[in-house]
């Protein structure tokens, strides 16, 4: 069997910066203790476990304003790479907490865009994943009634805005380019004058395009990534839907099932942008050792 390593794969610059910041904060004796992160710093349990070992407490739950109330007075809080709403920033400031913001610059750009469009009188159709922290943070930039979350084409019928008012369509950074194009087209069919701001980040686009290209030449694609990682799940999806090839997602080497590789002559391996390289290397190493595969770049 041949194993191909898909490039680019794994950590993007936003994830590198967020993890580096959290580790630096954990090691700085001048930073007030305890140190909390509002949600997973990036969506990967291995990364979260590493931070736990450094003494950082990860708070988990769907509402980050509510999570903030679990942080005791005088403590430190880190905002994740996914960004938080202005209400969370204001509350942390009002409580006098020490704050470190690991929001990815690409997410910050989307927040700025939403603020600008709202100030210009637009309502926002935000295309994103329900119950994911990035939409919660970004949509918090708009007043209630001026923003709606749309995940699928079926959601478009429920958009409450008057077609005669200005509408901006804004996307989450880690979506599938192909699915998003279909949802944008459905929104445009209802709101032909809507302005489109495709905010899918370059790291996400490049990983998806490389995975689809590589999938054309192999029997199976293995995506290494956490179940909560939006971009890892989208990598599986684009291989299946766009390239029409089988794909499996594993969180680590322990998830690999030898039965998947029976009769398979070629496999390509990629990783979501929040997956640490050692986890992906272990998966490639297993394939080499247990299937006798030849690894190629
Ligand atoms: Fe930033 Fe994109 Fe990486 Fe998310 S996937 S952290 S938006 S570069």
UniProtKB/TrEMBL annotation:
One of its GO terms (molecular function) is metal ion binding. It is an enzyme of class 1 (oxidoreductase). Gene3D superfamilies: 3.40.50.11270, 4-hydroxy-3-methylbut-2-enyl diphosphate reductase, catalytic domain. Binds 1 [4Fe-4S] cluster per subunit. (2E)-4-hydroxy-3-methylbut-2-enyl diphosphate binds at residues 43, 82, 132, 173, 229, 231, 274. Isopentenyl diphosphate binds at residues 43, 82, 132, 229, 231, 274. Its EC number is 1.17.7.4. Its cofactor is [4Fe-4S] cluster. HAMAP family: IspH. Belongs to the IspH family. Catalyzes the conversion of 1-hydroxy-2-methyl-2-(E)-butenyl 4-diphosphate (HMBPP) into a mixture of isopentenyl diphosphate (IPP) and dimethylallyl diphosphate (DMAPP). Acts in the terminal step of the DOXP/MEP pathway for isoprenoid precursor biosynthesis. This is 4-hydroxy-3-methylbut-2-enyl diphosphate reductase.
């Amino acid at each position: 069997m041949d194993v191909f390593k898909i490039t680019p794969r794994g950590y993007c610059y936003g994830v590198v910066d967020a993890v580096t910041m959290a580790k630096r904060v954990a090691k700085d004796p001048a930073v007030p203790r305890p140190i909390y992160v509002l949600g997973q710093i990036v969506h990967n349990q291995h990364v979260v476990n590493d931070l736990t070992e450094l003494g950082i407490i990860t708070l988990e739950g769907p509402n980050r304003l509510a999570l903030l109330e679990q942080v005791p007075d005088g403590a430190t809080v880190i905002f994740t790479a996914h960004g938080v709403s202005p209400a969370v920033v204001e509350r942390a400031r009002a409580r006098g907490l020490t704050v470190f913001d690991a929001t990815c610059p690409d997410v910050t750009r989307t927040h700025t865009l939403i603020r600008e469009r709202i100030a210009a009188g637009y309502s926002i159709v935000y295309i994103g994943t329900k119950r994911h922290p990035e939409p919660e943070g970004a949509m918090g930039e708009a007043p209630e009634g001026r923003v709606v979350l749309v995940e699928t084409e079926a959601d478009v019928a429920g958009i409450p805005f008057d077609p005669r008012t200005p509408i901006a369509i804004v996307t989450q950074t880690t979506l599938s380019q192909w699915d998003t194009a279909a949802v944008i087209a459905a929104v445009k069919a209802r709101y032909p004058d809507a302005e489109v701001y495709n905010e899918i980040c370059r790291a996400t686009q490049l990983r998806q395009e490389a995975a689809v290209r590589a999938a054309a030449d192999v029997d199976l694609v293995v995506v290494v990534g956490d179940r909560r990682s939006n971009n890892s799940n989208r990598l599986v999806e684009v291989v299946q839907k766009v390239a029409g090839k089988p794909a499996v997602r594993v969180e680590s080497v322990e998830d690999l099932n030898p039965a998947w590789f029976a009769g398979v002559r070629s496999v390509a391996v990629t990783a979501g942008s929040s997956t640490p390289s050692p986890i992906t290397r272990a998966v490639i190493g297993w394939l080499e050792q247990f299937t006798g595969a030849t690894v190629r770049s």
